[in-house]
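Work Package 4 report. The design task specified in the project plan requires that, given a folded chain encoded as structure tokens, an amino acid be chosen for each position. We show below one input record used in the internal validation round.
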């Protein structure tokens, strides 16, 4: 008979990671978990304890499914009804508590479900009713933690995994948080959390303690059994001393003999100590694994084979399983996810008034400065190189402005994406589509303001067709640059991205200005290399839009001008035979390339 309980059970779990080595050929691996076993039962609040570096977070990540690479052993849990709360409380910015709850209901509950009773009950039970209209960043640490729990409670999960839920909280607030988790466990849920060193009051609130040291289980059972268990091994906890402090200090200062003895006593987690009997007895995990048929097991559990036939095949199977887990079993359709996310993203952009005003000022100010520098100079035949500088400056502004902002702002959003995708709020594709489309309206608006100012103030011909080409090329360049910035922001952290971005854009800018004064002497192979720079392609496209399409002769007065005919300038630059729409096609190709890199980077970050 299949075990349909809501327990979390694991046996012989090993977790290894690669570590940096001075030798390039020496690929060392460190074992974080050394074949630990255990059971976290439904209706109980379980704590994973241990000194720093003991493997607490590693065990939580392994049994929750957050980490699969390097994990082996047998793990049983209902993965469709579990959720994971990270140590940091990431929430959508510029949304109130009630709006966040409505967003969660729209994504997690089936259509035509009445959201109001669900929201009211959850906020009342978690004492957040009085903060309904406050933004998440206006809440205290304890309130943000309760909000994280409230958002996940919308889907009524049966298993909660929490990493250091009391981190950063004072002792009173931490105790209140643990009491809240205990109440959740009593409501027919399995609650598992990591905690470093709880106070004596907080320690007594847990129903089950799982103590790790050096990747091994040294105790598993109720908190009241810990002291008698240690006394049996002649390890006497001093009177009025916090038992949790004692065992952590004991394991942290041990040279290895005590940890080995304690791990042997519990059989590395296969044995559990109960209140009735200080002697450790076997848990029922082995019987469950023996009785459950493999087919039924795959339907309701998450299994990782201990000894896969090959590393590549095992990695492929894990990635397929996790990809299926990420993208399936959502409460609403992909289109519904997209519509909810799109409206939320547009609302966030609109409410971020300070950023909108800064961007508006930036584009207006720079547009006016460019216009004053090249004021009424566009029809002067003697200023050929100034015309080139104008086109180069426009493209440089659009490329750098649109690239640098996502590099600095987007990495923090990726952390929120990882948490919400793992907890099955939505799939990646609806999010990616909403992200792409929601950024377009304001980007078009601000860039058109800049392009309109520079076009009119520089004195370019009042021709709607020519301005249309000018604006289209400017917008496409900005879309390419934004895609590049998002791809970098999705791949690297803020620190690394702020270094990688300028390193990548610098050669693209160099190729953009190369050879305009000796275009006839540039070898054809160099032209192929220059096509690799979307900035160069943008400059050439802008020059063609400004001086091509039968542009009227420039004004030189009574002085001879070699470049008064725009066709002469195009011939000098060796672009008179270049077809503008071919260049536009190159820019569109770069949009596709960078957006594809963005999608793959987000997928890699989620699967990792």
């Amino acid at each position: 008979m299949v075990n349909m309980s809501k327990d979390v059970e694991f046996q012989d779990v090993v977790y290894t990671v690669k570590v940096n080595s001075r030798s390039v050929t020496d690929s060392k691996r460190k074992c974080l978990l050394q074949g630990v076993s255990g059971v976290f039962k439904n209706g109980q609040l379980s704590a994973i304890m241990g000194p720093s570096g003991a493997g607490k977070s590693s065990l939580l990540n392994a049994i929750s499914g957050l980490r699969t690479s390097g994990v082996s052993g047998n793990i049983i849990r209902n993965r469709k009804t579990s959720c994971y709360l990270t140590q940091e409380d990431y929430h959508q910015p510029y949304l109130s508590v009630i709006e966040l709850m409505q967003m969660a209901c729209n994504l997690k509950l089936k259509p035509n479900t009445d959201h109001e009773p669900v929201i009211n009950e959850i906020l009342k039970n978690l004492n957040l009713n009085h903060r309904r209209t406050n933004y998440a960043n206006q809440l205290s640490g304890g309130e943000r933690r309760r909000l994280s729990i409230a958002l996940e409670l919308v889907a009524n999960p049966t298993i909660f995994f929490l990493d250091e839920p009391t981190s950063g909280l004072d002792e009173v607030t931490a105790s209140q948080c643990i009491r809240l988790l205990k109440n959740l466990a009593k409501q027919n849920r399995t609650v598992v959390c990591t905690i470093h060193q709880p106070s004596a009051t907080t320690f007594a609130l847990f129903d089950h303690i799982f103590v790790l040291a050096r990747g091994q289980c040294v105790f598993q059972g109720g908190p009241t059994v810990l002291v008698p268990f240690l006394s049996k091994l002649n390890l006497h906890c001093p009177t009025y001393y916090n038992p949790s402090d004692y065992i952590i200090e004991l394991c942290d200062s041990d040279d290895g003999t005590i940890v080995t003895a304690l791990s042997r006593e519990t059989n590395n987690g296969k044995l559990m100590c109960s209140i009735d009997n200080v002697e450790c007895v076997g848990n029922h995990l082995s019987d469950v694994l023996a009785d459950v048929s493999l087919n039924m097991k795959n339907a309701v559990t998450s299994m990782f084979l201990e000894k896969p036939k090959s590393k590549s095949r095992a990695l492929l199977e894990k990635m397929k399983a996790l990809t299926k887990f990420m993208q399936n079993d959502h409460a609403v359709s992909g289109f519904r996810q997209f519509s909810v996310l799109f409206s939320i993203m547009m609302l966030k952009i609109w409410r971020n008034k300070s950023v909108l005003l800064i961007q508006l000022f930036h584009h207006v100010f720079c547009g006016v400065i460019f216009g004053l520098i090249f004021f009424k100079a566009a029809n002067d035949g003697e200023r050929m190189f100034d015309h080139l500088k104008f086109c180069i400056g426009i493209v440089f502004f659009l490329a750098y402005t649109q690239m640098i902002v996502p590099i600095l702002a987007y990495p923090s959003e990726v952390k929120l994406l990882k948490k919400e995708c793992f907890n099955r709020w939505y799939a990646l594709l609806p999010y990616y589509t909403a992200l792409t489309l929601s950024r377009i309206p304001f980007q078009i608006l601000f860039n058109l303001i800049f392009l309109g100012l520079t076009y009119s103030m520089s004195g370019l011909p009042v021709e709607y067709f020519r301005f249309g080409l000018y604006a289209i090329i400017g917008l496409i360049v900005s879309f390419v640059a934004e895609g590049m910035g998002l791809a970098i922001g999705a791949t690297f952290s803020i620190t690394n991205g702020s270094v990688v971005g300028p390193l990548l854009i610098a050669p693209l800018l160099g190729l953009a200005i190369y050879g305009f004064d000796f275009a006839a002497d540039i070898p054809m192979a160099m032209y192929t290399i220059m096509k690799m720079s979307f900035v160069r392609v943008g400059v050439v496209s802008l020059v063609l839009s400004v001086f091509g399409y039968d542009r009227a002769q420039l004004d030189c007065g009574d002085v001879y001008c070699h470049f008064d005919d725009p066709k002469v300038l195009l011939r000098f630059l060796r672009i008179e035979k270049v077809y503008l729409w071919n260049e536009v096609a190159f820019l569109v190709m770069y949009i596709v390339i960078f957006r594809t890199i963005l999608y793959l980077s987000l997928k890699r970050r989620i699967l990792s």
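The first helix runs from residue 56 to 64. Validation will be extended to a larger panel in the next phase.
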